[in-house]
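B., you asked whether I could sanity-check this one before it goes into the benchmark set. Here's the sequence:
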Amino acid sequence: MSAGQAVRLSRALLPPLGYVKRDGTKLPGIVYIGGFMSNMTGVKATAMEQLAVERGHAFVRFDYTDLGQSVSDDGKKTYSFEQWRLDVLTVLDELTDGPQILVGSSMGGWLSLLTALERPDRIAGIITISVACGFFPRFASSLSADVSKIFEQRCDLSVRNEIHCFLYYSSVCG
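And here's what the prediction gave me:
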């Protein structure tokens, strides 16, 4: 797909995931991971797409479950940080090939770090834009036990400075 048209990925028991995918000839590809309550039509998402296309890189931007073009037909919305984390993994696993650079804005910065922990072999780099350090403590209780365990193994939770955790992740995943 190269026209930049929004389409929807069907998923069992979940609303379809709305996304835009652009083909490219250069690796790594780029995945844009938006902020809290953002959608894929925002200025940062579309500007990142334009940059990727101009430079020949594959690119994907998407709407999280229950936002934008990823809303169920019944209109019910059950926002969940854990589901949004799974959305990022779905995009990475089903819509991209090869190594990817994750570009996360605000909450998307945290999601990019969590994604890198779960798929380190797929990540060529991480760029965060105004990463929302406060999101992890706020949503930590909603993460699965497996993800919480990975986080605990790689970051000293007794250190309250989220920047320390971010730098540690960068050194582990970079």
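One thing to flag: The chain has a mean pLDDT of 78. Otherwise nothing jumped out at me.
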